[in-house]
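Appendix B, example 12.
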Amino acid sequence: MSDQQLLAKCQAGISTWQLAFNQQDAAGCAARYTADSVMDARPFGTFKGRQEIQAFWQGIMDKGFADVEYTNVNWEAAEDQGYILSSSWTMNKAFGVVHREHWVIEEDGEARLLSDDFEVQGER
């Protein structure tokens, strides 16, 4: 797979995650993470594995958070595999930054988050 194809798959991965979030589908969000993914959600804490990650996103959705949008998106090739995304983001009730999302292509050909590090910086 070329670097361009790999990047396109990672970009499709974040689009799929965003669509799931905006449809209030926590299971769909969790499906974009690897089975043993680690998510650092500042200031909430660290969540490991799809079950904890799905519970976190469901809790956020249950509080009325929706409509995530990304701006200032930057993709860089990761040293070992996949791509690193960093960006700013906004939701209907909050805003912040993605410090580092590590997207990889798994054996099934799907792009998933190996790790996710983001921060809520304020409310709207």
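The domain at 3-123 is CATH 3.10.450.50 (Nuclear Transport Factor 2; Chain: A,). The mean pLDDT is 97.
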